[in-house]
Amino acid sequence: MTRGEVRRRLALEWWRQLAVTLLPLFVLNLLFGADQQYGLLSMPLFITGLASMFVSLPLFSAYKRALLATEKALDTPAEHDAWIDLARTRRLAFLGAGLPAWVAAAAVFAGLEAIPLILLAISSIVLLYLYRIPRQLG
After folding, report:
1. What whole-number distance in Å separates Cα of residue 55 and Cα of residue 118?
2. How far apart are the C-alpha atoms of 106 and 104, rounded to whole Å?
3. Residue ranges of domains in the chain
4. Who contacts 66 (Cβ-Cβ below 8 Å, separation ≥6)?
5. The pTM is what?
6. Do residues 8 and 133 lie in contact, with contact meaning Cβ atoms separated by under 8 Å?
7. Fewer CB atoms inside 10 Å of the end CB: C or N, the chain?
8. How confident is the prediction for the chain on average, in pLDDT?
9. Helix/strand/coil (H, E, C) string of 44-113?
10. In the prediction, which pLDDT does 58 show?
């Protein structure tokens, strides 16, 4: 598999993860968002969603290390294994980046309003954006 094919596959995986991250929030909000019940859990769930962004800190550090290792392994026999390790590390980091949007999806049932839901969704999008493969790696 060529480097360009790997980059395309990783880019497609990023878009797929973006859909997997945001789709539950949109579907649950569409189905259950009209029931504006003001529960006691809406604010704690919003704070939990904000705090879940910090899960990405160690995951991003591991991703950066994997990026550097992949860059060093380019045009060597270890390049294939470096790409595989990068993809594995990135998949794990995607889970951490999706947490704010998934907490927001759960918060729909608690009656969390639109602005906090949008903020949590945007925070997941920003975190996912950090895990795009840089152009210099191609």
Report:
1. 19
2. 5
3. 3-137
4. 82, 85, 86, 89, 90
5. 0.87
6. no
7. N
8. 90
9. HHHHHHHHHHHHHHHHHHHHHHHHHHHHHHCCCCCHHHHHHHHHHHHHHHHHHHHHHHHHHHHHHHHCCC
10. 96
Which of the residue ranges 18-27, 28-37, 56-65, 116-125 would you say has the lowest mean pLDDT?
28-37
What is the DSSP track for 6-32? HHHHHHHHHHHHHHHHHHHHHHHHHHH
For 22, the token pair is 């945001």
Q: Return the structure tokens found at 53.
A: 């962004």
Q: What is the largest CA-CA distance in the chain?
A: 58
Contacts of 63 (CB under 8 A, 6+ apart): 86, 89, 90, 93, 130, 131
pLDDT at 33: 72
* Torsion from C-alpha of 70, 131, 1, 8, nearest 10 degrees: -140
Q: How many CB atoms lie within 10 A of CB 102?
A: 19
